[in-house]
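Self-study notes.
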Amino acid sequence: MDRIDTIIVWGHGIKYLDKILEYTNEKFEILKIKRYKIKNVKKFIKDVYSFDYAPFWHLKDKTKYLLNVPKEAVFIFIKNLNPNEDYFGEGKFRHRESKTLKNFKEFLRDKFNPYENNKRTHNHIIHATDNPTQTHCLLKMLGYKEGIKIFEEDKFIKLPYYLKGYKKFEIKKIDINSLYGNIVVGKSWDNFDLELTPLSKTPHFLGIKNIEVYQNYIDKFLGGPLGDYYNKNKYQNLIQNFKYLKDEYKNNYVVVKQNKDRFVILDGLHRASILYSQGYKEIIVCQVL
């Protein structure tokens, strides 16, 4: 049975974020990426590890190195499709966790932890949850009141977690030129605004011919306003293997909301851009009401 877990990339590991995400995407389904600026390091570390199986006093010495790394963290929420759970630890520290995630955590630490005298240090670049309850608590700590329930899926139409509040839908065909995207503009992931942009002028569409335009956009805003996992390799793979509303993707509609004579894309900007590049004049969408 699958479960929802979390990988936290600490400040000194963020320089490896692209590779960490690539490896993670190969092993798990990435649900959300959340970048976080830490105001009070000691409080933040205590809050994160307060959900751990071991008491914080036991972890204090092991985590004090985090006081001297950049004051930032990236939360990667994942669907662990094959947890392979087992018990680890001894005595009062004995606990149940995913062998799949535990092995993956050590793989990343072997790759990216600092080394001294050809030995891996314990200045770990990542932390990973032991169970979904910890993920639930972390989500609530970050301000998501529903916790892990935000990732529950609708069985009829596949909607991302952030659109679950909509209960009424209409499947319809519309002019593809009436599609707009809410595109992020600004200086960085924590200093930005949104701008309603015609589909033909989005970095998603322009990136089909010039992929660096798209990659620069992702690099600038990933983990802030852009919470889904994409990079140029993933997008190019989608372009080459694209299937819209076919086979296992039959419920993966481009989701829109009408704004006067425009339809604003709430989910599916990549798919709509590919269809537009292929010369489609009309597109079947799911309009939320």
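Second protein, same conventions, sequence then structure:
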Amino acid sequence: MVANAYYLQEGESVDYTPVIAMVAGEVVQISDGRAAFAPTAIAAGVKGAVQVCGLVTMPKTTSMALLDGGKAYWDYSASKVHFRKVNDRDFYLGRVVGDCTEASTSCVVALNVAVPYDVDVHGDAFLSVATGTKVIGVFGFTKIHGGAIILELGATSEAQCIDLLSVDKFAVGANPIAEFIFRVPTNGTGSTVDFSLGLASATSATDADAIAEHCLIHIDGGSTAIMAQSKDGSTTVAAADTTKVISAGTAVANRVEVWMDGRNLADIQIYVDGVLVLASTVFNLGAATGPLGIIAHLEKTTGTETGIFALDAMRCRLMKQ
């Protein structure tokens, strides 16, 4: 037998030769795409070692919160951790360890950790049922544009509804944190068009408000205001204004990211673009029996009004507290 491999190094660090000198603690993206940092300074053109795993304390953008287990990105221009990347040289860092408030100036990141979500509509099965006259390429069928799932209403003068509900669900005691990223290429063109997104026990062929157990963000009748509401069979919390708004369009700048922190289902915390909204409002699924899934729901009650909504992410992670 001939030896086919020999031990090189543990793999927690890798050799790296910077073109420009690195200071101790500097964060970089190496050629295989991973994030790394220099534990000690490395001179330009000199081979050194950068760390590619472990728990690392990093500076954090103070305008937004981070939730335990959420994705962390390196904001290249600001040299701080952010919850998302934009059209820059930003890159994936790993997962956040522990909760961080908006005021926190630092956070801990598990470097290069990429654990799969327990429910992920973009990678798992989902159910979609349409109410109304189906028109191929327009209404009645979810459409895939790259990694986005598109829900669209048609101009036929009638009541219409199209939804998307995860096949995989979870028990009410599973401590969910759900994440949703969406864009609005064309907002509802009139007062009868409603869009909802969130946690739900089931769907409705006509009205998301009618779902027996839900916690939803809601865009009502073509408004740009993002509302939030809940119902658990015992307590109903009417739609309240988060004070956050959408801006219609298809670009990165038009993305809205919503988190629903259900680690306490009797007081779900909702975040829009990293900011806690309606902190004093108690969105409540405490009496829900479940199981719960993740849902997107687009409807109109009548007329020729239309709307197009793009779902870039719908996913949920579960945990033992």
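Instructor comment on the second fold: The radius of gyration is 22 Å.
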